[in-house]
């Protein structure tokens, strides 16, 4: 018993100490072998108890040696790791943000800085929010402009074809002044090619207040393009959207410097980047905003298109293929 409590109390700092301890108890001339040698001389009736005690002692010593060895090895390993300050660091694999997220965040940042908040809505929409409230009543021919994926007809449930639906929801639930942008995923039943896809991302913007004019729209877009592209040569081409009047398409002059530029701009130097216009009075009325009191502008852009320009990406399908060789190139971007 005395031996056992000594064994339990024993500690060691070096391997040598452990080895000496082992020899003392378990070595050829060690304490245990001495007891085993004494065994023969023990009277028969005490043999059992004696044997049990010696075996207990042997177990205690063996376990202690094992435990001390493990402890010391652990400590040595630690010393190896932390003791050598010249050791090269362990490489930490970092991920990369998706280019769509990077560009989306940049757009949000720019509009936040001039007072726009961010609004979101459902990807699955009803007819009212995606079409009817936006001045696109049933059988309106302009519905064909947007090849819709229907989930259910009558009543219609569909995948939103633009995030203008979010702006309708926002106007229904908020009073002017309204300054909001709606980033999100949209769906159109289009053939997939290098330039278009059936799923893409948009940021649409809406500003409704008293006396909002087309000049405000132009100046806002000029500020935006300057911030995002570092270029501010834009032109507004008259266009048509059912929900804005007048409407325009915004082109940015990209110049023709590289081969990718040629591919993206088709050789003219001008590239269409968004649609915009003054919110049609009918749309305001549909959302319970009085067009006699308020006016507004709206705009919408595809994030893929803009990311393709900024990063000189020639094929929209790359965004959805999750090819690591593509994604890893955005590691250093924020
Ligand atoms: N909703 C239009 C689209 O998806 C874009 C747009 C938004 C145009 C707002 C004008 C005003 O193509």
From TrEMBL:
<keyword id="KW-0963">Cytoplasm</keyword>
<keyword id="KW-0175">Coiled coil</keyword>
<dbReference type="GO" id="GO:0004826">
    <property type="term" value="F:phenylalanine-tRNA ligase activity"/>
</dbReference>
<dbReference type="GO" id="GO:0006432">
    <property type="term" value="P:phenylalanyl-tRNA aminoacylation"/>
</dbReference>
<dbReference type="GO" id="GO:0005737">
    <property type="term" value="C:cytoplasm"/>
</dbReference>
<feature type="domain" description="Aminoacyl-transfer RNA synthetases class-II family profile">
    <location>
        <begin position="103"/>
        <end position="321"/>
    </location>
</feature>
<dbReference type="InterPro" id="IPR010978">
    <property type="entry name" value="tRNA-bd_arm"/>
</dbReference>
<keyword id="KW-0547">Nucleotide-binding</keyword>
<dbReference type="InterPro" id="IPR006195">
    <property type="entry name" value="aa-tRNA-synth_II"/>
</dbReference>
<feature type="binding site">
    <location>
        <position position="245"/>
    </location>
    <ligand>
        <name>Mg(2+)</name>
    </ligand>
</feature>
<dbReference type="InterPro" id="IPR045864">
    <property type="entry name" value="aa-tRNA-synth_II/BPL/LPL"/>
</dbReference>
<keyword id="KW-0460">Magnesium</keyword>
<dbReference type="Pfam" id="PF02912">
    <property type="entry name" value="Phe_tRNA-synt_N"/>
</dbReference>
<dbReference type="InterPro" id="IPR022911">
    <property type="entry name" value="Phe_tRNA_ligase_alpha1_bac"/>
</dbReference>
<dbReference type="Pfam" id="PF01409">
    <property type="entry name" value="tRNA-synt_2d"/>
</dbReference>
<dbReference type="InterPro" id="IPR002319">
    <property type="entry name" value="Phenylalanyl-tRNA_Synthase"/>
</dbReference>
<dbReference type="InterPro" id="IPR004188">
    <property type="entry name" value="Phe-tRNA_ligase_II_N"/>
</dbReference>
<protein>
    <recommendedName>
        <fullName>Phenylalanine--tRNA ligase alpha subunit</fullName>
        <ecNumber>6.1.1.20</ecNumber>
    </recommendedName>
</protein>
<keyword id="KW-0030">Aminoacyl-tRNA synthetase</keyword>
<keyword id="KW-0067">ATP-binding</keyword>
<dbReference type="GO" id="GO:0000049">
    <property type="term" value="F:tRNA binding"/>
</dbReference>
<dbReference type="InterPro" id="IPR004529">
    <property type="entry name" value="Phe-tRNA-synth_IIc_asu"/>
</dbReference>
<feature type="coiled-coil region">
    <location>
        <begin position="51"/>
        <end position="78"/>
    </location>
</feature>
<dbReference type="GO" id="GO:0005524">
    <property type="term" value="F:ATP binding"/>
</dbReference>
<comment type="similarity">
    <text>Belongs to the class-II aminoacyl-tRNA synthetase family. Phe-tRNA synthetase alpha subunit type 1 subfamily.</text>
</comment>
<keyword id="KW-0648">Protein biosynthesis</keyword>
<comment type="subunit">
    <text>Tetramer of two alpha and two beta subunits.</text>
</comment>
<dbReference type="GO" id="GO:0000287">
    <property type="term" value="F:magnesium ion binding"/>
</dbReference>
<keyword id="KW-0436">Ligase</keyword>
<keyword id="KW-0479">Metal-binding</keyword>
